[in-house]
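Exercise 7. Given the encoded structure of a 257-residue chain, write a plausible sequence.
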């Protein structure tokens, strides 16, 4: 299901998915739904052995395009998450084929959850990981509250969430957030080579191993996604979110006092 904003190409069993919505590859609702369908279709396609997810330009993705919501205060964050990122994260974790995230630049918000839901991550040395949600007065969603502390520990995750400070590629590698870091100019070639190597391996056994990992480490991912959506509904109705969005649009520091 290729669209103008998502490009797909299958080369020798490696399905490369490229986010292509300049300049920040921010997600719309339809883009999120399309990506979910691509992951589900990949699970049914015997010609797909490995999935490689990346972005165009200098950003992997800025997450949800907040401008899509307009100024209406009537939207339901819970309903939005249930229609977009929650099924996407579940589709990624339930896909019994390896998913490699080639993180070509900055990643924030819901797209951080997408990157963390990949089985393996290779990052450009220019990549930066920002939780992002608290920048507009929201709580984490897209399984960030589960996947981030699972990978880097609760203390580091809490600091990243509360401060909204970026995690650079060097620390991401040292903390286990990514598996490999390469020069930015080498990223796509290195990621493609890694994906091709995996594609020649025992993919069905890898799928069973992924099923094991889900049971051993992430058995409650569906419940966490649902609870995040519940809390996001609360956060989205509060004055902090309104101030955060206003500050973001006006390009100023928010005043939460």
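Solution.
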């Amino acid at each position: 299901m290729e669209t103008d904003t998502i490009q797909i190409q299958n080369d020798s069993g490696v399905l490369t998915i490229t986010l292509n919505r300049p300049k920040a590859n921010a997600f719309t609702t339809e883009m999120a739904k399309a990506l979910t369908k691509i992951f589900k279709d990949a699970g049914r396609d015997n010609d797909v052995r490995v999935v490689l997810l990346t972005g165009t330009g200098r950003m992997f993705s800025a997450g949800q395009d907040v401008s899509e919501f307009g100024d209406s205060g009537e939207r339901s964050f819970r309903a939005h998450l249930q229609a977009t990122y929650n099924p996407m994260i579940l589709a990624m974790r339930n896909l019994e084929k390896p998913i490699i995230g080639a993180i070509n630049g900055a990643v924030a918000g819901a797209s951080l959850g997408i990157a963390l839901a990949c089985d393996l991550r290779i990052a450009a040395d220019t990549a930066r990981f920002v939780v992002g949600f608290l920048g507009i007065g929201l709580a984490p969603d897209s399984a960030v509250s589960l996947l981030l502390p699972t990978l880097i520990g609760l203390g580091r995750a809490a600091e990243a969430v509360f401060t909204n400070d970026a995690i650079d590629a060097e620390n991401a590698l040292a903390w286990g957030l990514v598996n490999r870091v390469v020069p930015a100019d080498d990223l796509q070639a290195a990621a493609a080579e890694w994906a091709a190597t995996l594609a020649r391996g025992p993919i069905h056994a890898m799928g069973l191993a992924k099923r094991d990992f889900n049971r051993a480490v992430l058995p409650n991912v569906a419940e966490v996604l649902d609870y995040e959506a519940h809390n996001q509904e609360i956060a989205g109705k509060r004055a902090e979110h309104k101030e955060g969005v206003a500050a973001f649009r006006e390009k100023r520091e928010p005043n939460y006092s």
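Remark. The chain has a mean pLDDT of 95. Students should compare their own answers with the one above.
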